[in-house]
């Protein structure tokens, strides 16, 4: 267990972790995986484009002295909030990242299930067994399966948060989301039902019991991300305060 989880749940290394605390720890790890995936896939690229792009803050001029000198001679070397033009940045972000999110969705729909099925193939199983130097105990194998389930659940939940936030402006995300969830669920079901799997039924059930969906945390994260993203778009497009208040009230009621 990492230091963050011990600090978060006040657990010492010498303590015996009960079932309830084990589930809470794994829920925290799934939430951290969702946040990490969202930061890597959505937040960090969008912030970099906002800071560097011509249609937003134009800080790319810091990285080219000759271009900055030329812009200064033409008196168009504004950068930062001085260079910000309402109504352009949000449109630029949507036009650039729509293709990125669609490619990410297609990868989740086809690449991730394919890799899951490859791991269940007997050739891959024998190769992994031959490469491993020591046999894992039942406890270690269960924890390994639980960590794998955490990664998969983190990717799936972050994808659903992405769809909930940007699906209204990129409708293809809403159309592809059921296909992604169905294909990944089928791949995981085949992975667990594969006849050549050496994992015992008790290990599979224990790993599934440990890793549970943090529904409330993901729901709160989705609502907060939706409000922040929609508020930024409203401000960029020059909406008044009344549409923002009406939208916020509608979100709270729904």
Structure, described:
- The protein is mostly helical and 254 residues long.
- Helix content is 74%, strand content 0%.
- It contains ten helices and no strands.
- The longest helix is centred in the N-terminal third of the chain and has 34 residues, at 19-52.
- The mean pLDDT is 78.
Question: What are the key terms here?
Answer:
254 residues, mainly alpha, 10 helices, 0% strand
Q: Indicate the low-confidence ranges by residue numbers.
A: none
Helix content class: over 70%
Tell me the strand percentage band: under 5%
Total number of helices:
10
Average the pLDDT over all residues and give the rounded result: 78
**Broad structural category:** mainly alpha
What's the overall geometry?
Answer: elongated
Main sheet record: none
N-to-C CA distance? 39 Å
Please write the string of helix (H) and strand (E) elements. Answer: HHHHHHHHHH
- Per DSSP E runs of 2 or more residues, the count of β-strands stands at 0
Our Rg estimate from Cα atoms comes to 23 Å
